[in-house]
Amino acid sequence: MIKDYEENGYLVFKDFVREGDLQRLREAATQFHQSWKQENAQFYAGKAINSAYLTAKKHLKNTERELLFKFIGSAKLMDVVASIMDGRPTFMNTQLFFDPVNEGQKNYWHRDPQYHMSIDEQKQALLGPNVVHFRVPLVDEPGVELIPGTHKRWDKDDELDVRLERNGRKNHENLSTGIKVKLDAGDLLVFSANMIHRGVYGMDRMSLDILFCDPVPELVKFVDDDCLPDSDILESLENADAFKSAIEIKTNNKAMHGA
């Protein structure tokens, strides 16, 4: 399976999360979503399709935060993470994906780095360091459309035209190279942030994404301190390596820059 990921840039593990654990994750995500929507009402009503920082203190109580930390730091999940990512996988962020309020809003092809990188930098990013999504759909959903292999290869001409809306093309147009991956509640979808992909809206989707990255300062700088567990929770986790890596790199970075 790891060979499949290296070749295609994604993997699906069916029925990865047990129903009891899934229900608790769903309840925590719903609490976060209700609070987040109140604070971001205009953005939510306008165009939002995802939120972030679920493990921060802002929208969840400590009980729900601890639940998320224990899932992320579970031996079962971290075994998968470690098998797919070389070196020392490092916790980066959490996201919640949902349907846009506007039913006419189109989904769009993209690579995650395109929003803060030039074309040349996007090409360079294909060589690493890596960011990988580990997505758990909390309800059955239409899933994601992916273009296999694009985590390692650059866009074909029509893919680039659509993704960047060049030469009269739009980023919501269909691409013949895309493959739809339908997801059921409790599955685990692993995919590279570098690959060309788009969410498929519908079915009141609600997916929890956990992002891990290679242990490099240029990526760990995006990690919010408030999203990391305190020492008590850290010691209670089955596998806290990804959190510890983020904390160590951020601590060293601050020491180097006198922050």
TrEMBL record:
The keyword Ubl conjugation does not apply. The keyword Transmembrane helix does not apply. Transmembrane segments: none annotated. Keywords: Dioxygenase, Oxidoreductase. One of its GO terms (molecular function) is dioxygenase activity. This is Phytanoyl-CoA dioxygenase family protein. It comes from Rheinheimera baltica. The lineage of its organism: Bacteria, Pseudomonadati, Pseudomonadota, Gammaproteobacteria, Chromatiales.
